[in-house]
Specification:
By secondary structure, the protein is of the alpha/beta class. It is about 40% helix and about 10% strand. The strands form 3 sheets. An 8-stranded parallel β-barrel has the order 1-2-3-4-5-7-10-11, surrounded by 5 helices. Strands 6-8-9 form a 3-stranded mixed beta sheet, covered by helices on one side. Bound molecules: beta-D-fucopyranose.
Length: about 500
């Protein structure tokens, strides 16, 4: 179980009554009152949906549905000083005593930098059509700006070629939290320049991997970086400064916009597989009498990211002093936005990548309620129906919504599964979420693919190697790979293009 961090809890309770630190504050069991809050969404759209017979156990997804699994560079690669890689904020953070539960660092993680061939064989053996990984910015541009490290680019070239040979489509995240340390020293995401440096780095990666049918994901979960790493202290760089957190929101979104611009400039070949941002979203349900608070909390959790990207404006109810809002300075936040920023952020993308782990509920004072069963990740309230609510809500609220991908969904090993390879709880979790995804597709949501988090047990940030999210077990010590029951089950789902057993 994760360790509570009272300092973070306190800091974040000051920031927002909702407490955006999903990784720390959503601990504890407890069951809230059953509240009639699940949106009733009417079916819409005429796109062919999955065929479904009476039993969800025979749910099928549309032809061409993309099945994948995801990892990120810092969490799996290891070899953090190999071949010219520079230090990232996570190297610095993990080296500080007390930051990571089990004292582990990014080395060896899952040793994927050296075992990548074996891992790609695993991907192929599961029958996956796509594999999502991230490029480590400090491997490619070790100091964050300026000189490019060819050896770093070559690693990702080999990975992409290796996937090609196995008939697997790459989905490449450009930024999954491993900011080059020199950029942090210059202010990190609180500084506008970082967005410009990101645009340059993105152009380098596009150029190196052009010609491949890569789906590009720009920034992974800007909310987590902003509120757990900048406003909070549980993730790198651990600042505990709400103004820095809000600046990190805008600058990461601007970075997304700059990457889209760079891809369009790189020409149609580089852009074949499309581009979009990866947002962690969650429905926020109102407790008794908490409709207004929940609306503002939805602003803070979801619309603060969705509206600028999809509508070209920030919501006016997400930041302020009221229950549910991010308790920061709304004027200071507004002052960060320069002319042209919102046009860049909202430039049409090809895909919206949704990462879904669970749902939230707030009371009228903005306090986060424990409303659904909590997983071994204390921040995760498991509510599969919330995925349906989220997907249909996106369809209803955003007229120009691009096609959707679910790029992360998963759960850590459940201590009740005494042998982690026999992970019945994970199978149940994945099944329940796929049922809801299928339901959403049947109701007209244009969902094109699903990636389980994660392919491998890996370095789970502040939890280190102690919390394991893989379909494939990575044995501590030997780092041997053993597919868990969930991997075998998922293999059958992929083969059947749906749920069959
Ligand atoms: C997501 C992160 C991913 C992993 C999962 C469990 O928020 O994007 O790296 O930590 O949570």
């Amino acid at each position: 179980m994760p360790r509570p961090d009272p300092a973070v809890s306190r800091a974040l309770t000051r920031l927002t009554d909702l407490s955006l630190d999903r990784r720390t504050l959503l601990r504890g069991a407890g069951v809230a009152a059953a509240l009639g809050v699940v949106a009733a969404c009417s079916p819409r759209g005429s796109r062919p949906g999955p065929t479904r017979t009476a039993s969800p156990s025979s749910l099928r997804f549309p032809d061409g549905f993309r099945w994948g699994a995801a990892t990120s560079a810092f969490q799996v690669e290891g070899s953090t000083t190999a071949d010219g890689r520079g230090p990232s904020i996570w190297d610095t953070f993990a080296a500080e005593p007390g930051r990571i539960d089990d004292g582990s660092t990014g080395d060896p993680a899952a040793d994927h930098y050296r075992r990548w061939e074996e891992d790609l064989d695993l991907v192929a053996s599961l029958g996956l059509g796509s594999y999502r990984f991230s490029v480590a910015w400090p491997r490619v541009v070790p100091t964050g700006s300026g000189a490019v490290n060819q050896a770093g680019l070559d690693f990702y070239r080999r990975l992409v070629d290796g996937l090609r040979r196995r008939g697997v489509r790459p989905a490449v995240t450009l930024y999954h939290w491993d900011l080059p340390q020199p950029l942090q020293d210059a202010g990190g995401w609180a500084a506008r320049d970082t967005a410009e440096r990101f645009g340059e780095y993105a152009a380098v990666v596009f150029d190196a991997l052009a010609g491949e049918d890569v789906t590009w994901l720009t920034v992974n979960e800007p909310k987590t970086t902003a509120f757990v790493g900048y406003a909070g202290t549980e993730h790198a760089p651990g600042l505990g400064d709400v103004d820095a957190g809000l600046a990190a929101v805008h600058h990461q979104l601007l970075a997304h916009g700059r990457a889209v611009q760079a891809l369009r400039a790189a020409g149609p070949v580089a852009a074949t597989g499309g581009i979009g941002i990866a947002l962690n979203l969650q429905p926020v349900y109102p407790g008794i009498g908490a409709e207004e608070t929940a609306r503002r909390a939805d602003g803070a959790e979801n619309r603060l990211y969705l509206d600028p990207v999809l509508l070209g404006r920030y919501p006016d109810d997400a930041v302020g002093d009221l229950p549910g809002q991010v308790h920061g300075d709304a004027d200071r936040f507004a002052a960060l936005v320069r002319e042209g920023d919102l046009e860049a952020i909202s430039a049409p993308a090809d895909v919206l990548a949704v990462q879904y782990y669970g749902a939230a509920m707030v009371d009228r004072y903005g306090a986060w309620q424990s409303a659904f069963p909590t997983s071994a990740a204390g921040w995760q309230q498991v509510h599969p129906e919330g995925l349906y609510d989220l997907l249909t809500r996106l369809r209803d609220d955003y007229p120009d919504l691009p096609p959707l991908l679910i790029t992360e969904n998963g759960v850590p090993d459940d201590p009740a599964d005494t042998d982690p390879v026999h992970d019945a709880a994970r199978v149940a979790f994945l099944r329940a979420h796929l049922e809801q995804a299928g339901r959403a597709v049947a109701d007209g949501v244009d969902l094109r693919g699903y990636y389980a988090w994660s392919l491998l047990d890996n370095f789970e940030w502040a939890r280190g190697m102690s919390q394991r999210w893989g379909l494939v077990r990575v044995e501590p010590g030997t780092l041997d790979r053993t597919p868990k029951d969930s991997a075998r089950w998922y293999q059958r789902v992929v083969a059947a293009n749906g749920l069959v057993d």
